Amino acid sequence: MNNQDKPGVAGYYHPLSAVSRHIRMYFGDTLLGHGTCFFVMSKDGPMLVTNRHNFTGRNNITGRPLRDDCAIPDHAVVTLHGPGEIHYHIDLIDHANPEVPSWTEHPTLGAMADIVALPVKEMVNIIGELNSVSLGNNWHRWDVGSELHVIGYPYGQIGGPFPIWSKGFIASEPDVDISGLPVFLIDCRSRPGQSGSPVFAHFRPGAIVEHGGQDYQAKKPMNYFVGVYSGRLRHDSDLGLVWKRSCIEELVNHAITQGTQHQMDFRRHRFSAAFYEEFSFEHYVLNDVDEFG
Q1: Assign residue 54 a region: left if phi > 0, alpha if psi is -120 to 50, beta otherwise?
Q2: Do the beta carbons of residue 198 and residue 228 sit within 8 Å?
């Protein structure tokens, strides 16, 4: 499989649907929850990005376990879709040195930032420009009320191999940091499992795009990465947090410079393959799995 491989579907699919990836967290053989991740193409190769709480299994503010049974994940599995399924297994705990994480945290915010990065050079032949996020452009200003899309996996792979697009709107002043952190609020009916989703603005042909203080009309579809979704403020609210694009850039640049905080042997990160399983509503409607989110 290479970065030109595409899921075997009949008809058109949006390019951004190939960016988000389903990630499952396990303790041993026990599935603990679902989440979303994506890859950023850096000058040092692919970089996996997701929420910190997906890997720690703890609320990133309180530090409390996300599950009632207090189970904490020791490994995660990322699903990559193509003619078949490629599963990328990530060890989250080195039992010889359990206090040192396998991921890289933000250079100044550290554990306060609910985002992490993991350099994955071994995936260079799988992840490319077509199925990853680019941080190379920064051409538009966003305002309160701007329409955004959270692209991820609520309740797991409920949409089959492709993620679900949840539409939302910027709900707080994007230039103002919430509680001193580089986040803004989004009004979006997101659900558990979408934590770690990339957030995009998507312009259709004919839309008005601002650049350099001037308005232009888009001649083709245009996509802009805005940040990373990390869950709702409260379970009874549709207000969620988005970590800003600038914060992701700082994280990725730090990961390039430092690498993982603990240099885990690539043998601990392994691949496996499986035949693609057809989507079934029965699996998702009847199976009540606790979700991270």
Answers
A1: alpha
A2: yes
How confident is the model over 213-239, as pLDDT tens digits?
778 787 887 888 999 999 988 888 889
Task: Give 158 or 65, the one with higher predicted confidence.
Answer: 65
Please answer whether residues 214 and 223 qualify as being in contact, where contact means their C-beta atoms are separated by less than 8 angstroms: no
Query: Closest Cα to residue 291, out of 221, 195, 209?
Result: 195
Mean pLDDT of 10-30: 88
> Per DSSP, what are the bridge partners of residue 225?
200
Taking 80 as the threshold, does the pLDDT of residue 9 lie above it? no
Distance between CA atoms of residues 168 and 149, nearest Å: 6
Secondary structure string (H, E, C) spanning the chain: CCCCCCCCCCCCCCHHHHCCEEEEEEECCEEEEEEEEEEEEECCEEEEEECHHHHHCECCCCCCECCCCCCCCCEEEEEEECCCEEEEEEECCCCCCCCCCCCECECCCECCCCCEEEECHHHCCCCCHHHCECCCCCCCCCCCCCEEEEEECCCCCCCCCCCEEEEEEECCCCCCCECCECEEEEEECCCCCCCCCEEEEEECCCCEEEECCEEEECCCCEEEEEEEEEEECCCCCCEEEEEEHHHHHHHHHHHHHHCCCCCCCHHHCEEEEECCCCCCHHHHHHCCCCCCC
What superfamily in CATH does domain 15-286 come from? Trypsin-like serine proteases (2.40.10.10)
Taking the whole predicted model, whether its pTM rises above 0.85 is answered as yes
Residue 239, number of CB atoms within 10 A of its CB:
14
CA atoms within 13 A on the CB side of 179: 10
Query: What's the sign of the alpha-carbon dihedral 175, 177, 183, 187?
Result: negative
113, two tokens: 């930032």
Dihedral angle over CA of 49, 134, 260, 229, nearest 10: -20
pLDDT of residue 99: 77
